[in-house]
Fold each of these.
Amino acid sequence: MDKTELEALYNWAQIKPSTNQVNLASCCVMPPELVEYAQENGIQLLTHNDPQEILTGMRRGWTLHYVVRYTNLMKLRGVIKSKGYLMRALRDVRGKRAF
């Protein structure tokens, strides 16, 4: 997320975000305004290089609603416990939507 998106999420959320992942494909240096905002609000900035398009070529009849990437880190160790993706897609079945 960029600074504007992170700030909007932070102001909206009841449980405040503690980390924000920035895609290295979009920048090679963290934007100074993002770094400053994160420091002011105790948000850790992390980087990743996942492709922008995670799912390509959805089969006919399917509608992708969202894809979420998660990483579970061991607190204070920086060790990845698990990571993966969650997604939701709906399939059209003869004019009706099915899960």
Note: The chain has a mean pLDDT of 83.
Amino acid sequence: MSIQDVKNYLPHRYPFLLIDRVLELEIGKSIVALKNVTFNEPQFTGHFPEQPIMPGVMIVEALAQATGILAFKSEAGKPIDGQIYMLVGIDKVRFKRMVEPGDQLRLEVEVITIKRGIWKFKCKATVDNQIITSAELMCTQRTAG
């Protein structure tokens, strides 16, 4: 999926759209997406000016956005239909290494379970095949607005 396609499945826009491309997607099972980290992103003006580091919460948000695309594609819906996937839980988060401008985050998400409208995902973010962040995320569909 190109960035134009990604924008059809996420309501986020600059500066908070954190998925640049989807490389793989298996409906109801998994997604692999990319986030290209650039020095021009606004968080780097304050985190930290002398040694810019992508905040861990932004990495988790990028993973959460990947879960949203997977869920929307799996349910054949889009935000334009008046629905949104909301992050409702974060478990087992680990940060292994810093992410700096110039890095390319590979975001890998697998569905663990879907129970009573709650999706649970196993997620990891890597740079150059090294695990940066791992987590279990949960999201659910809500009416936007």
Note: Residues 3-143 form a domain with the Thiol Ester Dehydrase; Chain A fold (CATH 3.10.129.10).
Amino acid sequence: MNKNQSEATPEVVNLGSGVTRYTWGPGVGCHGVQHFRRQGGGHDVPGFAASAIWDFVSAYDIDGEIGCGGPRPCCFFDGSCTVELPADCSASGGTSNAGDSCEPQPCPEPSTGACCFGSNCSLLSPESCASSGGSFTGLGSVCESGCEPGACCLGETCALLAPGVCTSLGGTFGGGACAKNSCSVSIPGDLDGDGVVGFNDLVQILGVWGICSGCPEDLVEDGVVGLNDLLVVLSNWS
């Protein structure tokens, strides 16, 4: 459906409180259309309605969208901003704004994020997520990141967490199961990766003794597996 020469497919965003925003971006005529749908709650007006409508209307003048045709600030769900053509912005899932720069920041801070209920996900505010018993993954996070738990390294400790929850806690998400030593800090000389420097590593060193450039056993990276590499193993023996 083409509305006033705007783009045929709208961007659909759930703003919370039962409000869904549909935005048909500017097309060849530099005109766009925005529609807000309230589901439930009667006809009372949400508190953010005035600012949301002004954000859209203020981007236009009598000739259409201000600055239409050139690169403009493109705002994304997480509050980030890039400068690109309106068509490219829309294709990337962003919303074009008036102006020609991301300074000062023209994009609103996100008020919702992905809330995980096991492997299921909903976009909620932190408060709504907590009161519903979910795990909030951070403002601006999206459900596309997934809620399927996987190995998350918090220092040397591994926990099964959703990707967003892992990141919000400062962890590193690797996915899969928490295998033995999956989050252990690498120990110099632990050639077989079992978390211990011992007999197996010594045998591995002796097995390739001599010139061996690029070999993992060349611990000091001098192109030779020899005494210096053996000393690394012995000094970290456990």
Note: The mean pLDDT is 82.
Amino acid sequence: FFVLAGVLSLHSGALTIRRHMCIQKHDHPNEGFLVASSWPREVRHLVSLTMITLVLVPFVSGISALVFGVAYSVAEGWPFVVSFDYSISSIAALSNPLTNVTPSTVMGDFLDIFISLFQYIMTASVTGLVSLLAIVRRVSDGVPDTWCAVLRYAIIYMPLLISLDIFIFGWVLSQLEGWALRTGILYMASSTLGIPNPLTSAVVYTDLGKLVDVTAMIAQISFQGAFIGVMVGHQKVEGLVDSLEGTVSAREGRSETSGSADENELADTA
């Protein structure tokens, strides 16, 4: 948690100092919080995706887990470490929780509902945010304008990327926990794919293993957003939506345009 806080602070702080001391504002008026507009496009896209996926979202999740951990500790009388493990397991939606405790008080049940709502909203927000990133739009624009290309990405490329992700994190966990590679892969497959009955009974015990497990599950939210962004931004998918709900008629389009113009005029007058 503190490493993520330090990385985020140093990165954004260095960019802020650079903006105020090293460049003129009129030269780069649209500087970003995570990237500099003067960087090459590929670097900007990669850095923004990496920072959001591996730094910003885990950092926010860590802060939230700290807050909920304190609340659970007060409500249930658990040690803070146990409360934190329970909170981060809920926020990261781990299929294999880091602790087996369950709330036994009314306040604990209320916190369970609230943290589930928070996890739902956070997942939806991060998914939507990542789907709008420039690198995702670029990939979507690069998909050929055919249904075969869409199906190729959905049925072949995305499953391969997910499988690669499962293999990498599974291998890392197997090294940290002393498992066989097969056990690590089965564990990550159960967590990543949300299999109701886990494929292995292995449990993560080491602190680094827990960190990898949580990071992997939080990263899945960004992967989902990227997949949604690629699919939704494709012209064939947009055409499918138009065929399902129809297109806006010319009269309706003029009405919406005039309505927006009237609202803008009233706002300017106010």
Note: The CA atoms of residues 249 and 255 lie 10 Å apart.
